[in-house]
Write a structure and sequence with these properties.
The chain is of the alpha/beta class. The chain is built from 19 helices and 17 strands. The protein has helices at residues 3-11, 15-19, 30-46, 61-80, 105-109, 126-134, 173-184, 188-204, 211-224, 231-239, 247-264, 269-277, 287-325, 346-357, 385-390, 416-425, 448-458, 510-515, 557-568, and strands at 51-56, 87-92, 115-119, 138-142, 156-158, 334-337, 361-366, 373-378, 399-402, 406-411, 441-442, 470-476, 485-488, 494-497, 504-506, 521-533, 536-548. Strand 3, helix 6 and strand 4 (138-142) form a beta-alpha-beta unit. It is globular, with a radius of gyration of 26 Å.
């Protein structure tokens, strides 16, 4: 196959359709939502009243970026049209531990009138929105989640998944918020900064990077690498010491920092909102003071992500022990109850365990708001988590929801064993005893440099456009300063092989390589990536799997001793 054929196969799209997406596809009801909003503000101005506008988002990266986009856009609209004195704009993010996801009746109780705009939630808030309408509060929903059989009685619903008229269905909440902003304001400088927020959320929320999303993320990366973003995002990027920013940075560096505060603290998501939406006036007298505060906030949220990683690693270590203690080893689905795990990292832990043990995993923790357990599940392979695992056991839950790949639930503690035993009786196959790594394209050493240019052309990679995996035979190691390899990482368990034309890095592969007697010629599946440091570009091959080449010459004992001595030196 060619690289072009790989992209067509992986995306299910023709190359022309993939490379020339419609940047502004029709989204049903978006124009009506914008006009409804404008009318509410203008009506308030005519009546000399103050309209209370409350944006209700979510505590994840998508919800926080989406809330920041709406807030900044609405403030800009009000100022540009001399309407600021007739509206008060606030943002309300649900508190993860004490309130849970989405628009709740408690949030409705905080308002007596005005307009609520939900973003990245709302399509399932049937009772809360009915309560809002009963109080005379107007509601606009901007959501991208699947609806149930019943739709809420909001004034305007914008959700491409609950109707068949939108020409693009894959926006995340921030993507929809950006489209709302694009119709609301004409300030190009601000729209560029809001586009960066939408790009971060699109990658972090793992929606398909095809069509309008691909266009959005590519434009976002161009802008942020030109230094165009809100003051808060630029402060975060500087503190994280990111140079040339890629979609991978959005997904594995910036996104996790955005999520960490909302995972660890009940109301931590508001810190991220304040950071993302912050736009400083360079001409203000207190600019220096505000900039220092912004950088201090960036330091704080980065440190929280360090804590989140530590907490996750500790939970993973406990889980390995619990799988044995709770006699789960032969189960087709691992259902783990960890009394110490934080609700905020359950999903991460479940996902990592699902990959490690190659089966669906559900992790339960004790809920902070009562005598019940909260659970988060992730699937593996083609097992539909909701349909095959949860639906047959629905009598055991207080509530549950999700889709094929992920789900959440609450359950009385007394029902946990009943649930686990019922799942053991379900017809769920254990098919994943041996992990296989499949590759897309076989290449030669001479073809590797060209891969980087093609990868940049077809980027960004992610959901819907998976990063290609390559295979190479008989890749020779070439000594650098007398060494064919070096062990690295804090524990020395990772390895760097000195291959040509670029080094190969294997995460926690040192022991495996050494057990093979450190072969000097390998067959390898790999991905290509680039490190940017001190203004320089360093190309690397990310090893996924390897073995000694079958036609590699047998080494004499003298050659082995000489090689070991060279590497030691």
């Amino acid at each position: 196959m060619t690289m072009e054929e790989v992209i067509e196969r992986n995306t299910g799209m023709s190359l022309k359709a993939f490379l020339t997406p419609q940047p502004n596809p029709y989204i049903h009801n978006m124009d009506r939502a914008v006009e409804f909003f404008k009318k509410k503000v203008n009506d308030a101005a005519e009546e000399k009243e103050i309209l209370q506008i409350k944006i209700v988002g979510d505590y994840d990266a998508d919800g926080m970026n989406a809330s920041a986009i709406l807030y900044d856009a609405i403030i800009s609209y009000l100022k540009a049209n001399s309407l600021a004195e007739y509206a008060e704009v606030s943002v309300r993010l649900p508190r993860r531990y004490s309130e849970g996801y989405g628009l709740s009746k408690k949030i409705i109780d905080e308002s007596e009138s005005g307009l609520i705009i939900t973003v990245d939630n709302g399509i399932a808030a049937i009772d809360a929105i009915k309560k809002a309408k009963d109080k005379g509060i107007d509601v606009i929903i901007l959501d991208h989640h699947l609806s149930g059989e019943e739709l809420p009685c909001a004034d305007i619903i914008v959700d491409p998944h609950c109707e068949g008229m939108s020409t693009f269905k894959h926006y995340c909440g921030a993507g929809l918020a950006y489209r709302f902003a694009e119709m609301l304001i004409t300030n190009k400088d601000l729209l560029d900064k809001l586009l960066v927020l939408a790009g971060i959320a699109t990658v972090a929320d793992v929606v398909p990077l095809i069509g309008a999303n691909r266009y959005l993320v590519r434009q976002s990366l161009k802008l942020i690498n030109r230094g165009i973003a809100t003051s808060g995002v630029l402060a975060l990027v500087r503190k994280m010491r990111l140079e040339k920013i890629t979609a991978e940075d959005y997904g594995y560096k910036i996104g996790p920092v955005c999520n960490a505060s909302g995972r660890l603290l009940d109301d931590g998501a508001m810190d991220i909102f304040h950071l993302l939406s912050q736009e400083l006036d360079v001409f203000a007298l207190d600019y220096d003071e505000q900039l220092l505060k912004l950088h201090a906030l960036a330091d704080t949220v980065i440190e929280r992500n360090v804590d989140r990683r530590r907490i996750t690693e500790e939970a993973l270590e406990r889980s390995d022990a619990l799988i044995s203690q709770q006699c789960l080893a032969d189960d087709a689905v691992y259902i783990i109850y960890d009394t110490q795990v934080s609700e905020g990292v359950m999903g991460i832990v479940a996902g990592k365990l699902a990959e490690k043990y190659m089966r669906p995993v559900i992790v339960f923790a004790h809920a902070q708001d009562g005598e019940k357990l909260k659970g988060s599940g992730r699937t593996y392979g083609n097992i539909h988590l909701k349909n095959q695992v949860l639906d047959p056991c629905k009598e055991y839950f207080f509530a549950y929801g999700g889709h094929a790949g992920a789900a959440g639930m609450t359950i009385p503690e007394k029902n946990l064993m009943l649930f686990r035993n019922k799942v053991r009786k379900l017809d769920i196959p254990v098919l994943y005893r041996e992990k296989r790594i499949l590759y897309d394209l076989e290449v030669t050493k001479e073809e590797i440099p060209e891969l980087y240019e093609k990868m940049e052309f077809f980027a960004p990679f992610g959901e819907g456009n998976p990063e290609p995996v390559f295979f190479i035979r008989n890749l020779e190691l070439s000594p650098v300063r007398g060494k064919f390899y070096e062990q690295n990482g804090s524990d020395g368990k990772s390895i760097k092989l000195f291959t040509m034309p670029y080094p190969s890095s294997g995460y926690q592969m040192a022991a495996e390589y050494l057990l093979m007697d450190a072969p000097k010629k390998i067959d390898m599946t790999f991905e290509v990536y680039t490190i940017y440091s001190h203004g320089k570009e360093h190309r690397r091959l990310r090893m996924l799997d390897f073995c000694a080449s079958k036609n590699a010459e047998t080494e004499t004992s003298f050659k082995k001793e000489l090689s070991a001595m060279l590497n030691f030196m």
